[in-house]
Input
Amino acid sequence: MEFHNPSDDEIRAILSRPTTVAVVGCSDNPARDSLKIAMLLKDHGFRVIPVNPQLGPDALRDVLGERAYPDLASIPDPVEIVDVFRRPENLPRIAEEAIAKGARVLWCQLGVVNLAAAARAQSAGMTVVMDRCPAIEYRRLF
Output
């Protein structure tokens, strides 16, 4: 199974059109890349909705002024981009949730590679960016 990321023009278009992005695996820990990228996206005009599957009674409830949710299905608003900071073995479930949510882009961070999940998302009409970081892409393309 072969995978090709979108062209630079397509990635530039995704990052140039601020919309709603769900950051799956988002943390409120300033040392974590997920929070740094969430902040970067917010600074570029995106609405960032944190998704933290570890949510429990004492867990994360708010990040960057937005309520955190345990999964994509719990988010009451539409989501266009799903940015994934979870292990590759979690990607098939997340891809299915993103498809059900109606997201148009599945963005998988550095090291988050699952070819079967990418193929499934693409077959559902989603654009898939895999093993890439928005911060690096911003520096590279803008």
